[in-house]
Design goal:
The chain has helices at 2-16, 19-39, 45-65, 73-86, 93-99, 104-109, 113-126, 133-143. By secondary structure, it is mainly α.
């Protein structure tokens, strides 16, 4: 379970004196616990991963806005590395296209790219695949010949 993995990694970070990892892992646990409180139920691993992805995205946006000589750059980069290591590996555009091969005709027959992407996302989710939305869109366009 993802939450258990985060707790284990946080304990290891404390033992190793890695304050950046410790703090960001505790932050991730806090975000997950807040989401659970709102939902009034335990989160699935996918829901917990979504919360972690939001933290990664927030850090990436902050990183992009900082000047190259900002003292926070190394810390934010390390936080992104720690959080990303918790997430399941995401498929590349080529891997997504391969995974969608069985749905290629339905994707090509869709009225527009939006509907085609919807078909693709539904298939990938059912297969338990983890993919970035932009990469799915690129794979769909590739399959549709665009």
């Amino acid at each position: 379970m993802l939450v258990d993995d985060i707790k284990k990694r946080a304990a290891e970070a404390v033992k190793q004196g890695d304050s950046v990892a410790r703090d960001v892992l505790r932050l991730a646990l806090g975000e997950i616990q807040t989401a659970e409180a709102r939902k009034n139920a335990a989160l699935t691993d996918e829901d917990a991963a979504t919360a972690i992805r939001k933290l990664v995205k927030s850090n990436e946006e902050t990183l992009a806005a900082l000047a190259q000589d900002d003292a926070r750059l190394p810390s934010l980069t390390r936080e992104i590395e720690v959080l990303t290591a918790l997430l399941p590996a995401q498929l590349t555009v080529a891997q997504i296209a391969d995974a969608l091969a069985a749905q290629a005709e339905a994707i090509k027959a869709a009225k527009n790219d939006g509907q085609a992407t919807g078909i693709a996302m539904k298939h990938l989710k059912a297969a338990g695949a983890s993919a970035n939305g932009a990469d799915v869109t690129a794979a769909v366009k590739q399959l549709r010949g665009g």
